[in-house]
Amino acid sequence: MEIDQSLIARIAAEVMAKVQKEAGSGSRGMGIFATIDEAVEAARLAQKQLRKLTIEKREVLITAMREAAYKNAAILAEMAVNESGMGRVADKVLKNQLAARKTPGTEDLKTEAWSGDKGLTLIERGPYGVIGAITPTTNPSETVINNGISMVAAGNSVVFSPHPTAKNTSLHTIRLLNEAIISAGGPANLLTAVAEPSLEATNAMMAHPHINMLVATGGPAVVRAVMSSGKKAIGAGAGNPPVIVDETANIERAAKDIIAGCSFDNNLPCIAEKEVIAVGSIADRLIAYMQKYGGYLISGQDIDRLVKVVLTENAELAASGCTEKPKRTYAVNKKFVGKDAKYILKQIGIDVPDDIRAVICETEADHPFVLEELMMPVLPVIQVNNVQEAIELAVSVEHGNRHTAVMHSRNVDNLTRFAKAVETTIFVKNAPSFAGIGVGGEGFTTFTIAGPTGEGLTSARSFTRQRRCVLVDALSVV
Ligand code: NAD
Protein backbone atom coordinates (compact mmCIF):
# COMPACT_ATOMS: atom_id res chain seq x y z
CA MET A 1 0.00 0.00 0.00
CA GLU A 2 1.32 3.44 -0.93
CA ILE A 3 1.70 5.92 1.89
CA ASP A 4 0.37 9.43 1.31
CA GLN A 5 3.27 11.62 2.51
CA SER A 6 1.19 14.80 2.65
CA LEU A 7 -1.42 13.07 4.84
CA ILE A 8 1.33 11.91 7.23
CA ALA A 9 2.77 15.42 7.33
CA ARG A 10 -0.67 16.86 8.07
CA ILE A 11 -1.34 14.35 10.86
CA ALA A 12 2.12 14.97 12.34
CA ALA A 13 1.50 18.71 12.26
CA GLU A 14 -1.86 18.25 13.97
CA VAL A 15 -0.36 16.05 16.68
CA MET A 16 2.47 18.53 17.15
CA ALA A 17 0.04 21.41 17.39
CA LYS A 18 -1.97 19.49 20.02
CA VAL A 19 1.15 18.67 22.03
CA GLN A 20 2.32 22.26 21.86
CA LYS A 21 -1.13 23.48 22.84
CA GLU A 22 -1.10 21.25 25.91
CA ALA A 23 2.44 22.33 26.78
CA GLY A 24 1.28 25.91 26.34
CA SER A 25 -0.97 25.61 29.35
CA GLY A 26 2.10 24.78 31.45
CA SER A 27 5.39 26.57 31.30
CA ARG A 28 6.83 25.53 27.89
CA GLY A 29 5.65 25.21 24.30
CA MET A 30 4.13 27.63 21.77
CA GLY A 31 7.23 29.79 21.72
CA ILE A 32 8.26 29.37 25.35
CA PHE A 33 11.66 27.74 25.94
CA ALA A 34 13.90 26.78 28.84
CA THR A 35 16.94 28.77 27.72
CA ILE A 36 17.76 31.93 25.80
CA ASP A 37 19.83 29.92 23.32
CA GLU A 38 16.80 27.77 22.47
CA ALA A 39 14.47 30.78 22.26
CA VAL A 40 16.84 32.65 19.93
CA GLU A 41 17.53 29.65 17.72
CA ALA A 42 13.82 28.85 17.33
CA ALA A 43 13.08 32.49 16.49
CA ARG A 44 15.95 32.52 13.98
CA LEU A 45 14.57 29.48 12.14
CA ALA A 46 11.04 30.94 12.25
CA GLN A 47 12.23 34.19 10.70
CA LYS A 48 13.85 32.27 7.83
CA GLN A 49 10.50 30.60 7.16
CA LEU A 50 8.67 33.93 7.37
CA ARG A 51 11.01 35.37 4.73
CA LYS A 52 9.85 32.69 2.30
CA LEU A 53 6.22 33.76 2.60
CA THR A 54 4.62 36.49 0.53
CA ILE A 55 3.73 39.83 2.08
CA GLU A 56 0.10 38.96 1.40
CA LYS A 57 0.52 35.83 3.54
CA ARG A 58 2.29 37.88 6.22
CA GLU A 59 -0.83 40.03 6.35
CA VAL A 60 -2.97 36.89 6.81
CA LEU A 61 -0.86 35.98 9.85
CA ILE A 62 -1.23 39.50 11.23
CA THR A 63 -5.01 39.36 10.81
CA ALA A 64 -5.01 36.14 12.83
CA MET A 65 -2.86 37.79 15.54
CA ARG A 66 -5.27 40.73 15.69
CA GLU A 67 -8.28 38.44 16.03
CA ALA A 68 -6.69 36.35 18.79
CA ALA A 69 -5.63 39.44 20.71
CA TYR A 70 -9.04 41.08 20.35
CA LYS A 71 -10.91 37.92 21.34
CA ASN A 72 -8.75 37.48 24.43
CA ALA A 73 -8.58 41.16 25.42
CA ALA A 74 -10.66 40.68 28.56
CA ILE A 75 -8.86 37.54 29.77
CA LEU A 76 -5.47 39.17 29.28
CA ALA A 77 -6.62 42.31 31.09
CA GLU A 78 -7.87 40.28 34.03
CA MET A 79 -4.63 38.27 34.15
CA ALA A 80 -2.47 41.42 34.06
CA VAL A 81 -4.29 43.12 36.93
CA ASN A 82 -4.30 39.94 39.04
CA GLU A 83 -0.66 39.18 38.40
CA SER A 84 0.93 42.63 38.58
CA GLY A 85 -1.53 44.11 41.08
CA MET A 86 -1.67 47.23 38.91
CA GLY A 87 -4.22 48.99 36.77
CA ARG A 88 -7.93 48.70 35.95
CA VAL A 89 -9.37 45.71 34.12
CA ALA A 90 -11.85 47.72 32.00
CA ASP A 91 -9.12 50.10 30.82
CA LYS A 92 -6.71 47.28 30.08
CA VAL A 93 -9.39 45.59 27.96
CA LEU A 94 -9.55 48.78 25.87
CA LYS A 95 -5.76 48.93 25.63
CA ASN A 96 -5.55 45.32 24.41
CA GLN A 97 -8.30 45.97 21.86
CA LEU A 98 -6.55 49.14 20.77
CA ALA A 99 -3.26 47.29 20.21
CA ALA A 100 -5.10 44.56 18.28
CA ARG A 101 -7.01 46.96 16.02
CA LYS A 102 -4.84 50.05 15.55
CA THR A 103 -1.28 48.74 15.32
CA PRO A 104 -0.30 49.19 11.67
CA GLY A 105 0.49 46.09 9.60
CA THR A 106 2.40 45.61 6.34
CA GLU A 107 0.74 48.68 4.77
CA ASP A 108 3.19 50.67 6.89
CA LEU A 109 6.13 49.53 4.73
CA LYS A 110 6.22 52.08 1.96
CA THR A 111 8.68 51.84 -0.93
CA GLU A 112 10.37 55.01 -2.19
CA ALA A 113 11.38 55.27 -5.84
CA TRP A 114 13.29 57.56 -8.18
CA SER A 115 12.97 57.12 -11.91
CA GLY A 116 14.51 59.07 -14.77
CA ASP A 117 17.06 59.06 -17.58
CA LYS A 118 19.33 56.70 -15.68
CA GLY A 119 16.69 54.10 -14.85
CA LEU A 120 14.99 53.15 -11.60
CA THR A 121 16.14 53.29 -7.99
CA LEU A 122 14.10 51.82 -5.15
CA ILE A 123 14.38 52.01 -1.41
CA GLU A 124 12.59 49.11 0.19
CA ARG A 125 12.13 48.19 3.82
CA GLY A 126 13.68 44.86 4.83
CA PRO A 127 13.65 43.09 8.18
CA TYR A 128 16.47 43.14 10.72
CA GLY A 129 16.08 39.43 11.48
CA VAL A 130 15.56 38.49 15.11
CA ILE A 131 14.58 41.35 17.43
CA GLY A 132 15.03 41.24 21.20
CA ALA A 133 12.08 43.12 22.71
CA ILE A 134 12.14 44.01 26.42
CA THR A 135 8.65 44.78 27.73
CA PRO A 136 7.28 46.52 30.84
CA THR A 137 5.07 45.39 33.69
CA THR A 138 2.74 48.37 33.21
CA ASN A 139 1.43 47.32 29.75
CA PRO A 140 2.41 43.64 29.56
CA SER A 141 -0.03 42.14 27.04
CA GLU A 142 -0.54 45.41 25.15
CA THR A 143 3.18 45.75 24.41
CA VAL A 144 3.53 42.11 23.32
CA ILE A 145 0.52 42.48 20.98
CA ASN A 146 1.70 45.82 19.61
CA ASN A 147 5.39 44.89 19.22
CA GLY A 148 4.48 41.42 17.93
CA ILE A 149 2.26 42.76 15.14
CA SER A 150 4.67 45.56 14.17
CA MET A 151 7.78 43.40 14.17
CA VAL A 152 6.25 40.46 12.29
CA ALA A 153 4.67 42.89 9.78
CA ALA A 154 8.21 44.09 9.12
CA GLY A 155 9.36 40.49 8.48
CA ASN A 156 11.13 39.84 11.78
CA SER A 157 10.77 37.28 14.52
CA VAL A 158 10.94 38.37 18.17
CA VAL A 159 12.51 37.09 21.37
CA PHE A 160 10.60 38.79 24.17
CA SER A 161 12.07 39.59 27.59
CA PRO A 162 9.02 40.40 29.68
CA HIS A 163 9.13 41.97 33.12
CA PRO A 164 9.23 39.11 35.67
CA THR A 165 6.29 40.57 37.63
CA ALA A 166 4.05 40.24 34.56
CA LYS A 167 5.55 36.94 33.42
CA ASN A 168 2.40 34.81 33.12
CA THR A 169 0.38 37.47 31.30
CA SER A 170 3.21 38.16 28.86
CA LEU A 171 3.95 34.49 28.17
CA HIS A 172 0.25 33.71 27.76
CA THR A 173 -0.04 36.53 25.20
CA ILE A 174 2.97 35.15 23.29
CA ARG A 175 1.39 31.67 23.23
CA LEU A 176 -1.96 32.99 22.00
CA LEU A 177 -0.34 34.95 19.19
CA ASN A 178 1.81 31.97 18.15
CA GLU A 179 -1.26 29.72 18.12
CA ALA A 180 -3.01 32.23 15.86
CA ILE A 181 -0.02 32.41 13.50
CA ILE A 182 0.24 28.62 13.26
CA SER A 183 -3.48 28.17 12.69
CA ALA A 184 -3.27 30.72 9.86
CA GLY A 185 -0.54 28.60 8.21
CA GLY A 186 2.50 30.51 9.51
CA PRO A 187 5.69 29.21 11.12
CA ALA A 188 5.92 28.20 14.78
CA ASN A 189 8.01 30.33 17.14
CA LEU A 190 7.84 33.70 15.40
CA LEU A 191 7.51 35.03 18.94
CA THR A 192 9.55 33.39 21.69
CA ALA A 193 10.59 33.89 25.31
CA VAL A 194 12.06 31.93 28.17
CA ALA A 195 9.78 30.31 30.74
CA GLU A 196 11.50 32.13 33.62
CA PRO A 197 12.25 35.72 32.60
CA SER A 198 14.94 37.43 34.70
CA LEU A 199 17.52 40.19 34.46
CA GLU A 200 20.18 37.53 33.73
CA ALA A 201 18.08 36.12 30.88
CA THR A 202 17.57 39.63 29.46
CA ASN A 203 21.30 40.29 29.59
CA ALA A 204 22.01 36.97 27.87
CA MET A 205 19.43 37.82 25.20
CA MET A 206 20.95 41.27 24.62
CA ALA A 207 24.43 39.78 24.20
CA HIS A 208 23.35 36.88 21.96
CA PRO A 209 25.07 37.06 18.57
CA HIS A 210 21.89 36.13 16.69
CA ILE A 211 19.87 39.03 18.11
CA ASN A 212 20.05 41.69 15.40
CA MET A 213 18.18 44.57 17.04
CA LEU A 214 17.08 45.52 20.55
CA VAL A 215 13.90 47.33 21.50
CA ALA A 216 13.40 48.38 25.13
CA THR A 217 10.13 49.70 26.52
CA GLY A 218 10.63 50.69 30.15
CA GLY A 219 12.42 52.99 32.54
CA PRO A 220 15.81 54.72 32.22
CA ALA A 221 17.95 51.70 33.24
CA VAL A 222 16.79 49.41 30.48
CA VAL A 223 16.93 52.16 27.86
CA ARG A 224 20.55 52.84 28.90
CA ALA A 225 21.29 49.11 28.76
CA VAL A 226 20.12 48.66 25.14
CA MET A 227 21.71 51.91 23.99
CA SER A 228 25.09 50.80 25.31
CA SER A 229 24.77 47.26 23.91
CA GLY A 230 26.70 47.92 20.70
CA LYS A 231 23.65 46.79 18.69
CA LYS A 232 21.05 48.76 16.80
CA ALA A 233 18.68 49.80 19.59
CA ILE A 234 15.35 51.51 19.99
CA GLY A 235 14.73 52.94 23.44
CA ALA A 236 11.22 53.87 24.63
CA GLY A 237 11.75 55.39 28.04
CA ALA A 238 10.09 57.09 30.97
CA GLY A 239 7.90 60.17 30.79
CA ASN A 240 6.55 62.70 33.28
CA PRO A 241 3.92 64.43 31.13
CA PRO A 242 2.92 67.94 32.24
CA VAL A 243 -0.46 69.40 31.35
CA ILE A 244 -0.90 73.17 31.11
CA VAL A 245 -4.27 74.88 31.40
CA ASP A 246 -4.33 78.55 30.47
CA GLU A 247 -7.01 81.21 30.94
CA THR A 248 -8.39 80.75 27.40
CA ALA A 249 -9.22 77.05 27.82
CA ASN A 250 -12.68 75.54 28.11
CA ILE A 251 -12.10 74.91 31.82
CA GLU A 252 -14.82 72.32 32.41
CA ARG A 253 -13.74 70.27 29.42
CA ALA A 254 -10.09 70.56 30.44
CA ALA A 255 -10.91 69.28 33.94
CA LYS A 256 -12.92 66.35 32.59
CA ASP A 257 -10.19 65.40 30.08
CA ILE A 258 -7.42 65.67 32.66
CA ILE A 259 -9.19 63.36 35.12
CA ALA A 260 -10.00 60.91 32.30
CA GLY A 261 -6.39 60.85 31.04
CA CYS A 262 -4.71 60.78 34.44
CA SER A 263 -6.90 58.00 35.82
CA PHE A 264 -6.90 55.80 32.70
CA ASP A 265 -5.52 52.43 33.83
CA ASN A 266 -4.70 54.16 37.12
CA ASN A 267 -2.05 56.38 35.51
CA LEU A 268 0.14 53.48 34.33
CA PRO A 269 0.53 54.68 30.73
CA CYS A 270 3.79 56.56 30.23
CA ILE A 271 1.78 59.22 28.35
CA ALA A 272 -0.71 59.85 31.19
CA GLU A 273 -0.99 63.31 32.77
CA LYS A 274 1.39 63.44 35.75
CA GLU A 275 1.16 67.08 36.89
CA VAL A 276 -1.15 70.03 36.14
CA ILE A 277 0.20 73.55 35.75
CA ALA A 278 -2.65 76.05 35.85
CA VAL A 279 -2.66 79.79 35.30
CA GLY A 280 -3.76 81.32 38.65
CA SER A 281 -6.85 83.12 37.37
CA ILE A 282 -8.59 79.84 36.44
CA ALA A 283 -6.98 77.40 38.90
CA ASP A 284 -9.78 77.34 41.49
CA ARG A 285 -12.42 76.80 38.84
CA LEU A 286 -10.34 74.04 37.27
CA ILE A 287 -9.93 72.27 40.61
CA ALA A 288 -13.68 72.53 41.31
CA TYR A 289 -14.47 70.92 37.95
CA MET A 290 -11.82 68.24 38.53
CA GLN A 291 -13.69 67.37 41.73
CA LYS A 292 -16.95 67.21 39.75
CA TYR A 293 -15.40 64.65 37.36
CA GLY A 294 -13.97 62.25 39.93
CA GLY A 295 -11.03 64.04 41.53
CA TYR A 296 -10.76 63.99 45.34
CA LEU A 297 -8.97 67.06 46.72
CA ILE A 298 -6.63 66.67 49.69
CA SER A 299 -4.62 69.39 51.39
CA GLY A 300 -2.27 70.22 54.30
CA GLN A 301 -1.24 67.27 56.47
CA ASP A 302 -3.07 64.78 54.28
CA ILE A 303 -0.59 65.59 51.49
CA ASP A 304 2.35 65.04 53.88
CA ARG A 305 0.82 61.75 55.02
CA LEU A 306 0.39 60.65 51.41
CA VAL A 307 4.03 61.51 50.62
CA LYS A 308 5.12 59.16 53.41
CA VAL A 309 2.92 56.38 52.07
CA VAL A 310 3.59 56.47 48.32
CA LEU A 311 7.22 57.63 48.34
CA THR A 312 10.31 56.52 50.19
CA GLU A 313 12.69 59.26 51.15
CA ASN A 314 16.49 59.26 51.34
CA ALA A 315 18.23 62.29 52.79
CA GLU A 316 21.55 62.76 51.02
CA LEU A 317 24.18 65.30 51.79
CA ALA A 318 24.87 67.40 48.75
CA ALA A 319 27.73 69.85 48.64
CA SER A 320 26.50 73.32 47.75
CA GLY A 321 29.25 75.91 47.56
CA CYS A 322 31.08 75.97 50.89
CA THR A 323 27.99 74.95 52.93
CA GLU A 324 26.61 71.47 53.04
CA LYS A 325 22.86 71.13 53.08
CA PRO A 326 20.77 67.97 52.89
CA LYS A 327 19.20 67.23 49.54
CA ARG A 328 16.14 65.02 49.66
CA THR A 329 15.70 62.30 47.08
CA TYR A 330 12.63 60.18 46.69
CA ALA A 331 11.72 56.86 45.14
CA VAL A 332 8.25 55.69 44.28
CA ASN A 333 6.89 52.99 46.57
CA LYS A 334 6.08 50.29 44.00
CA LYS A 335 3.30 48.91 46.22
CA PHE A 336 1.12 51.83 45.14
CA VAL A 337 1.96 52.01 41.45
CA GLY A 338 -1.22 51.54 39.38
CA LYS A 339 -3.51 51.26 42.42
CA ASP A 340 -7.04 52.73 42.61
CA ALA A 341 -7.42 56.23 44.10
CA LYS A 342 -9.83 54.75 46.65
CA TYR A 343 -7.20 52.28 47.86
CA ILE A 344 -4.50 54.96 48.04
CA LEU A 345 -6.73 57.31 50.05
CA LYS A 346 -7.62 54.52 52.45
CA GLN A 347 -3.94 54.34 53.48
CA ILE A 348 -4.24 57.84 54.94
CA GLY A 349 -7.57 57.14 56.58
CA ILE A 350 -9.88 58.64 53.96
CA ASP A 351 -12.86 56.59 52.71
CA VAL A 352 -14.30 57.59 49.35
CA PRO A 353 -16.90 56.08 47.01
CA ASP A 354 -15.86 53.90 44.06
CA ASP A 355 -16.41 56.67 41.50
CA ILE A 356 -13.42 58.67 42.78
CA ARG A 357 -10.87 58.22 39.99
CA ALA A 358 -7.94 60.41 41.13
CA VAL A 359 -6.44 62.16 44.15
CA ILE A 360 -5.69 65.82 43.49
CA CYS A 361 -3.71 68.27 45.60
CA GLU A 362 -2.20 71.73 45.27
CA THR A 363 1.59 71.72 45.69
CA GLU A 364 4.66 73.82 45.08
CA ALA A 365 6.57 73.35 41.84
CA ASP A 366 9.41 71.40 43.49
CA HIS A 367 7.19 68.93 45.31
CA PRO A 368 8.19 65.27 44.78
CA PHE A 369 4.70 64.52 43.42
CA VAL A 370 5.59 66.89 40.59
CA LEU A 371 9.15 65.72 40.02
CA GLU A 372 8.71 61.93 40.32
CA GLU A 373 6.98 59.75 37.73
CA LEU A 374 4.41 58.36 40.19
CA MET A 375 2.39 56.12 37.85
CA MET A 376 -0.61 56.21 40.18
CA PRO A 377 -3.71 58.42 40.12
CA VAL A 378 -2.24 61.13 42.36
CA LEU A 379 -2.17 64.44 40.52
CA PRO A 380 -0.51 67.60 41.82
CA VAL A 381 -1.76 71.00 40.64
CA ILE A 382 0.63 73.97 40.60
CA GLN A 383 -0.58 77.54 40.19
CA VAL A 384 1.52 79.99 38.17
CA ASN A 385 1.07 83.64 37.26
CA ASN A 386 0.88 83.39 33.49
CA VAL A 387 1.32 81.10 30.53
CA GLN A 388 5.00 81.91 30.06
CA GLU A 389 5.73 80.75 33.62
CA ALA A 390 3.60 77.66 32.96
CA ILE A 391 5.62 76.77 29.87
CA GLU A 392 8.98 77.24 31.60
CA LEU A 393 7.89 75.08 34.54
CA ALA A 394 6.40 72.37 32.31
CA VAL A 395 9.61 72.13 30.28
CA SER A 396 11.62 71.81 33.47
CA VAL A 397 9.47 69.10 35.13
CA GLU A 398 9.30 67.07 31.92
CA HIS A 399 13.00 66.47 32.68
CA GLY A 400 14.07 66.46 29.03
CA ASN A 401 12.41 63.08 28.46
CA ARG A 402 10.87 64.57 25.30
CA HIS A 403 8.00 62.12 25.83
CA THR A 404 4.49 63.63 26.10
CA ALA A 405 2.92 66.98 26.98
CA VAL A 406 -0.68 68.19 27.01
CA MET A 407 -2.16 71.68 26.82
CA HIS A 408 -5.69 73.01 27.20
CA SER A 409 -5.92 76.38 25.51
CA ARG A 410 -7.79 78.14 22.73
CA ASN A 411 -4.89 80.46 22.00
CA VAL A 412 -2.97 79.15 19.00
CA ASP A 413 0.11 81.19 19.89
CA ASN A 414 0.24 79.70 23.37
CA LEU A 415 -0.22 76.18 22.02
CA THR A 416 2.52 76.70 19.48
CA ARG A 417 4.90 78.26 22.00
CA PHE A 418 4.55 75.35 24.41
CA ALA A 419 4.81 72.69 21.69
CA LYS A 420 8.01 74.28 20.37
CA ALA A 421 9.55 74.68 23.81
CA VAL A 422 8.82 71.23 25.21
CA GLU A 423 9.93 69.23 22.13
CA THR A 424 8.03 66.12 23.15
CA THR A 425 7.34 63.14 20.90
CA ILE A 426 3.60 63.52 21.59
CA PHE A 427 1.84 66.85 22.09
CA VAL A 428 -1.92 66.70 22.74
CA LYS A 429 -4.15 69.76 22.49
CA ASN A 430 -7.50 70.02 24.24
CA ALA A 431 -7.99 66.29 24.87
CA PRO A 432 -6.95 63.55 27.29
CA SER A 433 -3.40 62.30 26.81
CA PHE A 434 -4.62 59.01 25.34
CA ALA A 435 -5.82 60.86 22.23
CA GLY A 436 -2.08 60.89 21.42
CA ILE A 437 -2.09 57.13 20.87
CA GLY A 438 -5.25 57.03 18.82
CA VAL A 439 -8.01 56.84 21.47
CA GLY A 440 -10.47 59.54 20.50
CA GLY A 441 -7.78 61.09 18.27
CA GLU A 442 -6.71 60.36 14.71
CA GLY A 443 -3.78 58.13 13.91
CA PHE A 444 -2.44 54.67 14.65
CA THR A 445 -1.48 53.32 18.05
CA THR A 446 1.72 52.14 19.64
CA PHE A 447 2.83 51.05 23.09
CA THR A 448 6.49 51.76 22.37
CA ILE A 449 7.12 55.50 22.11
CA ALA A 450 10.77 55.98 21.33
CA GLY A 451 11.75 59.45 22.47
CA PRO A 452 15.41 58.82 23.42
CA THR A 453 16.35 57.19 20.10
CA GLY A 454 13.98 59.31 18.00
CA GLU A 455 11.77 56.79 16.16
CA GLY A 456 8.76 58.35 17.88
CA LEU A 457 5.58 56.30 17.80
CA THR A 458 6.99 53.01 16.56
CA SER A 459 5.30 50.92 13.88
CA ALA A 460 6.38 48.24 11.38
CA ARG A 461 8.69 50.60 9.48
CA SER A 462 10.64 51.36 12.70
CA PHE A 463 11.75 47.72 12.71
CA THR A 464 13.13 47.65 9.18
CA ARG A 465 16.41 48.40 7.43
CA GLN A 466 16.43 50.56 4.36
CA ARG A 467 17.72 48.75 1.29
CA ARG A 468 18.47 50.50 -1.98
CA CYS A 469 18.15 48.67 -5.28
CA VAL A 470 19.41 50.44 -8.42
CA LEU A 471 18.65 49.43 -11.99
CA VAL A 472 20.51 51.51 -14.55
CA ASP A 473 19.20 52.37 -18.03
CA ALA A 474 16.05 50.30 -17.75
CA LEU A 475 12.56 50.16 -16.28
CA SER A 476 11.95 53.86 -16.45
CA VAL A 477 9.07 53.89 -18.89
CA VAL A 478 8.64 57.60 -19.54
P1 NAD B 1 11.22 48.83 34.19
O1 NAD B 1 12.25 49.72 33.61
O2 NAD B 1 11.34 48.44 35.61
O3 NAD B 1 11.17 47.45 33.36
C1 NAD B 1 11.01 47.42 31.95
C2 NAD B 1 11.68 46.18 31.40
O4 NAD B 1 13.09 46.35 31.48
C3 NAD B 1 11.39 44.92 32.18
O5 NAD B 1 11.29 43.83 31.29
C4 NAD B 1 12.59 44.76 33.09
O6 NAD B 1 12.79 43.42 33.46
C5 NAD B 1 13.70 45.29 32.20
N1 NAD B 1 14.84 45.91 32.88
C6 NAD B 1 14.80 46.83 33.86
N2 NAD B 1 16.06 47.25 34.17
C7 NAD B 1 16.90 46.58 33.35
C8 NAD B 1 18.32 46.55 33.16
N3 NAD B 1 19.14 47.29 33.90
N4 NAD B 1 18.83 45.74 32.20
C9 NAD B 1 18.00 44.97 31.45
N5 NAD B 1 16.66 44.94 31.58
C10 NAD B 1 16.12 45.72 32.52
O7 NAD B 1 9.82 49.52 33.90
P2 NAD B 1 8.34 49.07 34.26
O8 NAD B 1 8.05 49.38 35.67
O9 NAD B 1 8.10 47.69 33.76
O10 NAD B 1 7.55 50.09 33.32
C11 NAD B 1 7.35 51.42 33.66
C12 NAD B 1 8.36 52.35 33.03
O11 NAD B 1 8.37 52.17 31.63
C13 NAD B 1 7.98 53.81 33.25
O12 NAD B 1 9.13 54.57 33.45
C14 NAD B 1 7.26 54.17 31.97
O13 NAD B 1 7.26 55.55 31.69
C15 NAD B 1 8.07 53.40 30.97
N6 NAD B 1 7.30 53.09 29.76
C16 NAD B 1 7.64 53.74 28.62
C17 NAD B 1 6.92 53.49 27.47
C18 NAD B 1 7.23 54.19 26.19
O14 NAD B 1 6.65 53.84 25.18
N7 NAD B 1 8.11 55.17 26.17
C19 NAD B 1 5.86 52.57 27.48
C20 NAD B 1 5.57 51.92 28.68
C21 NAD B 1 6.31 52.18 29.81
UniProtKB/TrEMBL annotation:
Annotated coiled-coil segments of the chain: none
Listed InterPro entries: Acetald_propionald_DH-rel, Ald_DH/histidinol_DH, Ald_DH_C, Ald_DH_N, Aldehyde_DH_dom
EC number annotated for this UniProt entry: 1.2.1.76
Domain of life per record: Bacteria
GO molecular function: oxidoreductase activity
Ranges where the Aldehyde dehydrogenase domain occurs: 35-433
Keywords per UniProt: NAD, Oxidoreductase
Record flagged with keyword Electron transport: no
NCBIfam families (UniProt xref): PRK15398.1
Protein name: Succinate-semialdehyde dehydrogenase (Acetylating)
Organism of derivation: Sporomusa acidovorans (strain ATCC 49682 / DSM 3132 / Mol)
Taxon lineage: Bacteria, Bacillati, Bacillota, Negativicutes, Selenomonadales
